[in-house]
Amino acid sequence: METKWLEDFVSLAETHSFSRSAQLRHVTQPAFSRRIQALEAWAGTDLVDRSSYPTRLTPAGETLYAQSIEMLQSLQSTRAMLRGHRAVGQDVVEFAVPHTLALTFFPAWVSSLRGKLDPLKCRLTALNVHDAVLRLVEGRCDLLMTYHHDSQSLQLEPERYEMLSLGQEVLAPYVKPAADGTPLFALPGLASQPLPYLAYAPDAYLGRVADFQLKEAATPIHLDRVYETDMAEGLKAMALEGHGIAFLPLSAVLKERQAKTLVSAGAGLDARLDVRIYRERPSGDVKIKSQAHALWEYLQWQAASTPLAGFLRVNKG
Known about the structure:
The longest helix has 25 residues, at 59-83. Strands 3, 4, 5, 6, 7, 8, 9, 10 and 11 form a nine-stranded mixed sheet that branches. Strands 1-2 form a two-stranded antiparallel sheet. Residues 309-317 have low confidence and may be disordered. Helix 1 (3-15) crosses helix 3 (29-43). It has helices at 3-15, 18-24, 29-43, 59-83, 99-103, 105-112, 129-137, 205-215, 232-240, 254-259, 290-305, 311-316, and strands at residues 48-49, 56-57, 92-98, 121-127, 143-148, 161-175, 195-200, 223-229, 245-249, 263-264, 271-280. It is α/β, with parallel strands linked by helices.
């Protein structure tokens, strides 16, 4: 049993809505429902009366709700005590960053700050987008760096969190070239002969953006989902071996494009994403590390005085 299942359950008990709680918990509704079902499997009984609307708890659910509040409060108090013993200094900025950005955008971005905020000491935790957002919401990092696409907006309340744009990223379909340099598999494919598709796992942020692009395509796209993973690097490795078409961020394939070991699988499906950074707004209850605050002030100044500092600009220097 995972503590996030209890947090999901408490949210459902308080909102009486699967869809609203899924939004608040920054997860898709199917994934949220699966986690409630997993909690019910662990408990060995129904916790939610699904025959009623708005959603109500069963008697067993009411009991678990009361216990969950106590358990989560106790865990939060314990975590606060433990965090007081951490060795991380107040001059170390803690980032939560999705895996792909951690491997591509983040190193070049930090390099672009060299000489402007020295010394910048930081700790990076690489996660999926959902867990990275939760890390900020739970107060377990100073800054969240993540993607943004209009079809997959993050449910972070602007009254509580502030945001800056750091650059832009492009998600597009890539494939290994044939011997003559043409795509080994070229979109859109045929209904009778769909093309092999190297896909993100269903709950992956980039996967949801790719799915949106495919649904919005001007012509039908015919793909056969032959492989799944959460990681863009995993999809790139499979694409390089010629196993199919993969939607990959431009920042992840710059070298492969230059070497022509990966080529475009077809035009018209590119998705432009923002790379954004978030922090909790300073208040009487929220203490901001001096180094994190200095970084944020510099980024605000940079955003006000310079056009959008996109990934390609950072890499070109």
